[in-house]
Amino acid sequence: MVVMFDRTDFSPSNISLGGGRCWFDPADTALQVDCTAHSVFYDVASNSFQPLMVQTDLWFSSGAFLPNGTLVQTGGYNDGDHVIRAFTPCINDICDWIETPNYLAERRCEPRNYPSSGSSVLLPLDQNKPDIEVKVMICSGAPRRSHRQALEGTFGEAVSSCGRLKVSDRNPSWEVEYMPISRVMGDMVILPSGDIIIIIGAEKRTAGWEASDDPVTTPVIYRPTDERNNRFWTMEPLPTLRLCHSMAVLLPDGQVPVGGSNPHVYYNFTRVKFPTELSLESFSPPYLSVEYRLIRPRIIVTTQNPG
Asked: Which CATH code of 3.20.170.30, 1.10.10.10, 2.130.10.80, 3.40.50.80 fits the domain covering 113-307?
């Protein structure tokens, strides 16, 4: 299952909330009364979706999961910048967003680095070691003044460097590595194998409307335990060009779906170099190859009583 959402202040979506439901928001800049869904709960196995209701703008919000599986989304734009939203996994197909307005003490919009958007990840922990090492890695981004140059029509290279830091050290220091491809706006996802996939993004300039070029279609696998200078592996390219506002996530079956893309102020499907993209596609990492079928872990059901 995947939760998807978009900003609420563009226009109506093509998905009805159903059941005569509408939401009313006098502060919305596009529609004060909206009976369409700007969030869905997508069932990958059945390729079906359930409309969800968000009542405030999630644009440039930030989120994280609680230990019980609840998705907590914080901040956003306009009327959503002080809001906390919670989405708990469905029980008998009953679930929706619960919003708490004015919960945040300060406005939260664009909490990540923007527009030179890089990405970060906590590297997998090895619990077999007596002293657990905690390492973080930050990759990609854009050089200084890149956004201003992009607005002036100059599209230079994004950043190819990664910084790796063992934060559990008493005096930590950065270890710098270089990806085989420059990238800005990339996503980093931890895989079940303990590897990291770096996927989507652009090879030139920054995040923002009309501010990037050369979509990166080639995913890169990073293997943290390999020898230095031998940790990056390039994969098969994705068929669809994606730029700003595309996303990637890990599914329970090990696949990595990617979706979306819209580098324009509004949705634009025609007569532009990179049209708004609504499609989803799924990348299968190497561990899903046929040759690994016999050694791949499986979740099985048993009728035996362990007691």
From this structure: 2.130.10.80
